[in-house]
Amino acid sequence: MKVLMAIDGSKHATGALTTACRILSPRNREIELLCVAPGVGPKHHVHRAKLCRRAKRIVDTVRVALAAEGISVKPTVQAGSPAQVLIAASLNYDVTVVGAQSHNNRSQRGLGPIASRVAEHSNATVLVGRELQSDAGIKILVPVDGSEGSLLALDKLVALVDLSAADVTLVHVVETPWLHAGDDQEWIGYEEEKEEEIDPQAQFEREFESEGDAILENARARLPVRTAVNTLIYRGLPTEEILGEAETGDYDLVVMGASGATDLKHQILGSVSSKVAWNAPCSVLLVRATD
């Protein structure tokens, strides 16, 4: 497993690195630390050299600290736009780790400008790292909807994380139908067959929940047999239900399939994975369907 960890000397980046080392399986793990010195014009070569020296000090300091914990890494320094460098480099790694925030952000929520751009534009798997909730076993929340993206996210989770000591919760959200078939008065002028009295709304919900059970069972079958797995079904808006469970369940990681869609709907409303990455109280692993 090839891991790229972005560092900039901030506590957020250091926290993300610590989290990644805890979450990602140590088996066959190769870690490269990358600190990107901000690019400057060719006329400012003295300033550029100073920025590169500072970046080298950062990676060397982190390398020594990790070596003391028995973690071997390869330090690297590049110059340029941090987001652009990371987006381009991420294609060569199994997962790229970025801190959710930057130097000037104090809140645990939200994304800094670099993390936001990498999470949105990278076509590779990105781990947006936040501090762990506890030192106990890892708690993982995996929303599944039966799509190729969510199934690929499960496969990526199995490849990247040692699940033998993890507690995995699979959650399926039955999205509230836009069409509410309830009060008969809403259907004036519609002649319904009266052979059988059936509540349309209840029928819809039974069908959706039955489909949800099948989706969860299929997802469970993709995880190792000995993995501790819980399953949940909620009704409502996917983003709200996922974030609500992440908040109340004290999870360390949410794993999301990210379609990378750029159509008008996603540009205006934002995808579920993007909203979760922005607002989750814990780390979020974004797995692109194009991986």
How would you summarize the topology of this molecule?
Blueprint: E1 2-6, H1 11-23, E2 30-38, H2 45-68, E3 73-80, H3 82-90, E4 95-99, H4 113-121, E5 126-129, E6 139-143, H5 148-160, E7 167-175, H6 200-221, E8 228-236, H7 238-248, E9 253-258, H8 264-269, H9 272-279, E10 283-288
Parallel strand pairs: 1-2, 1-4, 2-3, 4-5, 6-7, 6-9, 7-8, 9-10
Antiparallel strand pairs: 5-10
Helix pairs in contact: 3-4, 7-9
Characterise the protein shown here:
By secondary structure, the chain is an alpha/beta fold. It folds into 2 domains: 1-131, HUPs (Rossmann fold, 3-Layer(aba) Sandwich), CATH 3.40.50; 132-291, Rossmann fold. The chain is built from 9 helices and 10 strands. The protein has helices spanning 11-23, 45-68, 82-90, 113-121, 148-160, 200-221, 238-248, 264-269, 272-279, and strands spanning 2-6, 30-38, 73-80, 95-99, 126-129, 139-143, 167-175, 228-236, 253-258, 283-288. The chain has a 10-stranded mixed β-sheet, sandwiched between helices. Helix 5 links the parallel strand 6 and strand 7 (167-175). Helix 7 (238-248) runs parallel beside helix 9 (272-279). The longest helix has 24 residues, at 45-68. The protein is elongated, with a radius of gyration of 22 Å. Residues 263-269 have low confidence and may be disordered.
